[in-house]
Every structure is written in C-alpha cells, then in structure tokens.
Amino acid sequence: MKILHTADWHLGKRLDRFSRLEEQVSVMDEIIQIADEQNADLILIAGDLFDNFNPGVEAVELFYKTLKRLSLNGKRPVIAISGNHDSPSLIDAPDPLARECGIILIGHPKAVISRFELEHFKISKSAEGFIELELKNKPYPVRILHTPYANEVRLKQYFGENKEAELNKVLAGHWKKNADDFCDENGVNLLMTHLYMNKKGAPILEEPEGEKPIRIGNADLVLSDIIPPQIQYTALGHLHRFQNIGTEEKPVVYSSSPLCYSFSEAGQAKYVALIDAEPGRPVSYGRTALKKGKCLERKSFDCIEKTVDWLTQNQDTFVELTLESETFLKADERKWLYQSHSGIVHLIPKVKSLETDENHPGEINLSHDMETLFKNYFKSKNGGQEVNDELIRLFHEITSTQP
After folding, report:
1. pLDDT at res. 213
2. Confidence of residue 212 (pLDDT cuts 50, 70, 90)
3. 263-267: which pairs have CB atoms within 8 A and are 24 or more residues apart?
4. What are the beta bridge partners of residue 14?
5. Does pLDDT of 268 surpass 50?
6. Do 133 and 123 contact (CB within 8 A), yes or no?
7. Mean pLDDT confidence for 121-148
C-alpha cells in the first residue's frame, strides 16, 4: 500500500501584504501530480488545512477542488483532520457530501466517523478516534488512529481532562485502547495527528514564526514514546520542516508545509512524504520535493548599489532586506530599492553605530540656535551619527511653519 502524507497547507495565508494564493494553486497541482504519478492508494492531510478559522472563498474553493482531484472522484480515499489554525466545525460541515467523493473530513478529537461504502473502498470499522478502511484492490485493511488538534477546551470535552491530568496520559490511554482493540498484524496500522510532538529528552523543536503556538510550557509537549507499538507510521502536522522524530523502523514524521510561509523557513526545501506499507513489517518511506512557489530570502547588504544588483537578478523571490549604512536611508534610495524588486516584504534600515565617549555625554547649551540643538540631539540619540541633509530640509520645513 502506498500512502502520501502532507500537512500544513495554510490555504489563504498571506505574507504581510502579499497574497500566496497563486502559489498555493500551483503547489496543490504539484501534490496531485505526485499522488497520481506514484499511484498513491491513500492520502493523509495532517491538519492546518486553512490559515484561519474563517478562510476566504477562494481558499475554501481551492481546498475542495484539490481534495476532489486527489480522491479521483471517489476512487482513492482522502483523510483530512483539523489543525490549530482550523475551525473544527468548518472542517466537519461538508462531511456527508464529501464522503460521496471518497473524502473523510475529521474536525473534532474522538470523532466517530459514520461507516459508508463506495465502489472502490469502504469504512469497515469505526470507533472514537479510529477508522478501518478496506480498499477493493488490497487484501488487507488499513487502520488509522486519528486525533485532530486538541486544545484544552476540546481535551476536557472529548477526553475528560481535568487540571491534574497530563496531556500525555490522556492521549496515551486513548491511543492504547484503540490500538489494542483494533490494530493487529493483519493490517496496516497508522496514527495521524496535529500536535506538538517530540522525542523524550531531545532538543526542543522550534515552531515557525507567525504560527499560533501549540507548545506553552511542557504541559503541551506530547512525547513520541506514548505512540502504541502497533503503529507502523505516525503522520504529524504543525512543524513546517520535514523531519522524522521517530526511528527508521517506526517513523514519526512531520511532512513539512508545501510552501515557505515565514522568513524563519527561508531556504527550507518542502516535501510530501511517500510511504510503502504492508502488514506486520516496518514501513519504508521517502520524501518528494515540492518545487512550486517563490523562495524566501533573508539578505543583508551594506551598499545600495550591491543591493539593487542582487534584487534585479533575483526577481522571483520574497525578500526580508536589511541594509546597513553610514546614514539613514533617503526617500529616493527607498524608492530605488522598491522599484528594482516587487517582492520586498520587509526593509530594515540599520545605521552603523559610531564610537562615542560614554564618559563625557556632553551638556545642552541652550544658547545655541534651534538647528544646532536639533543636530546635537540627533547625534546623541543615534550613536554619534550626523543628521543627513534630507532631515535638515524637513526640520526647516517644520520650523518655518511655526507661528
């Protein structure tokens, strides 16, 4: 059985003032193409389907069209769970219609999915947080323990959590029961969840910039050692870098986001995971790179001319640009930069600090004229930096209007 695992689509997400929808359309096409070329039998989408609880019409339309194409109009099962950016009710809402297209949408933890049968597959068993699928072209079933993102309110509602209970204990008990009840060696056994998970004792994994954080202290850290031993592969969502925090025999994989969504991800390659699985044996898995979408670059320069030269030669990027110089950027310099590149997301001017005598900060001489006082003040507040001509002209314009 070949399984494609993807996550963290964040459809509708923007980068500051820039829309990413056109890139998302392209990368969704790319994921569909990979699924078809690899003859994937099953698609798993591990949460953060949208970027917020109320996605725009275009993002919702792209989501449904992508799922329908991935499902091959009902021939291939597609299972998508909600993440911490998603509204569980929004994800659940179209489920009765989605099932007719072979799409299983799971918004809430401990959900019980109604059994149904299509021409090419059926849900043969269902319990709280568990489904078993039988594919007509496979002689064995696939079992999936599913846990969408569970915040404190949802945990209390669905798992009976109280203040003294630990998240790991709650989830470990729930997963163990389902694994013991349903997951023997006569089928493929998977876990699919959107949580902050890490290996016990391993360094803390950084959440991407701009993400709604899941981990707040150690209470929200789920340890991979609570995954039941019957599980052959764990499909994770939330962290945007591809990584296996499990072992080669029992992979626990963040598949990565399909695009770089913040400058903390600048330079990261993006992937989907492809898994080959059969009952009673370790899975084999690999990753296929996603090549659509613009690169994100964090660049620093100390010369306007060099900056413009690089910007001119790297047009198909989004850039966070730091420019260090002896003086503050002038308006015409800023204009030159923005005219040379349409994808400057952040421009960070940085004035080189000049040495000052900290032991003699100087005194204010009120006998000086206003312009001299302004220059001295500016110099004292900016590390000895002299005021430029543009600011002096602005100072004159302001003071000349005073009564």
Report:
1. 59
2. low
3. 263/209, 263/296, 263/298, 263/320, 263/345, 263/346, 264/206, 264/208, 264/209, 265/208, 265/209, 265/240, 265/241, 265/296, 266/295, 266/296, 266/297, 266/298, 266/320, 267/295, 267/296, 267/297
4. 19
5. yes
6. yes
7. 96
Lookup result for tokens 């030669």? 313
- Average pLDDT of the segment spanning 373-394: 76
**392: how many CB neighbours lie within 10 A of its CB?**
14
**Residue found under tokens 């000049």:** 354
- Bridge partners, residue 299, by sequence: 321
Q: Of 108, 89, 105, 199, nearest to 150 (Cα)?
A: 108
Model-level pTM?
0.83
Strand partners, 273: 5, 287
The answer to whether the CB of 73 falls within 8 A of the CB of 32 is: no
Burial of residue 259 (CB within 10 Å: 0-12, 13-18, 19+) is buried
Q: How far is CA 302 from the centre of its chain?
A: 32
The Cα–Cα gap between 371 and 369 comes to: 6
Query: What is the Cα–Cα distance from 243 to 245, expressed in whole angstroms?
Result: 6
C-beta of residue 285 within 8 angstroms of C-beta of residue 253: yes
More confident residue, 378 or 296: 296
Give the mean model confidence (pLDDT) for residues 147-160: 71
Q: How high is the pLDDT of residue 220?
A: 67
Tokens of 383: 């590390």
Q: What is the mean pLDDT of residues 143-150?
A: 93
Among 76, 75, 79, 22, smallest CA distance to 49 is for 79
- Please state, in angstroms and rounded to a whole number, the distance separating the CA atoms of residues 104 and 255: 20
What band does 164 get if pLDDT is binned at 50, 70 and 90?
A: very low
Nearest by Cα to 63 from 42, 90, 39 = 90
Report the run of H or E that residue 5 belongs to, with start and end: strand 2-6
